[in-house]
Amino acid sequence: MERLDDKDLQLLRILQKNAKLTVKELAKEINLSPSPVFERVKRLEQEGYIKHYAAVLEAEKLNRGFTVFCQVKLKIHDRSVGNEFVKEIVQIEEVAECYNISGDFDFLLKVQVRDMKHYQDFVFNKLGTVDSIGSTHSTFVMAEVKNNHGVTI
């Protein structure tokens, strides 16, 4: 992060809130001309500070408004078992996010489904086919209180 100055940080903050802004609009926001802003954004992309651009969708409108955090414990802790779990889990469309965690469980899944019935089907027919899983624990989201979809900088 040593290579980032205040203008770079301003750009990152602005782009996190609205990546649709044009270079001209970004330049106006940070008081620079468009050419150096364009170069800064390209550099931030090339150096990996900006991974990609995405639209944040409304899950409820897309029939995926029921969110469940599912903690997963593997049967055994072995590199091949862990790799096989990851290979299988990334193929399951209901799994929006997957994190390898420490503590009582090995992985944390963010699952987005239509409703409880859909989650039950997901558990039995998708998660249940992943042989490496030893146990799971589900926590159902009642309301999303905060999600800024970004990194605080």
TrEMBL record:
Molecular function terms from GO: sequence-specific DNA binding
CDD domains according to UniProt: HTH_ARSR
A biological process term (GO) from this entry: response to amino acid
CC terms in the record's Gene Ontology section: cytosol
PROSITE patterns listed in its UniProt record: HTH_ASNC_1, HTH_ASNC_2
SUPFAM superfamilies xref list: Dimeric alpha+beta barrel (SSF54909), Winged helix' DNA-binding domain (SSF46785)
Keyword Membrane included in the entry's annotation: no
Domain of life: Bacteria
Record key words, sorted: DNA-binding, Transcription, Transcription regulation
Segments forming domain HTH asnC-type: 4-67
Matching PANTHER family: LEUCINE-RESPONSIVE REGULATORY PROTEIN (PTHR30154), TRANSCRIPTIONAL REGULATOR AZLB (PTHR30154:SF34)
Protein name per its UniProtKB record: AsnC family transcriptional regulator
Lineage: Bacteria, Pseudomonadati, Bacteroidota, Flavobacteriia, Flavobacteriales
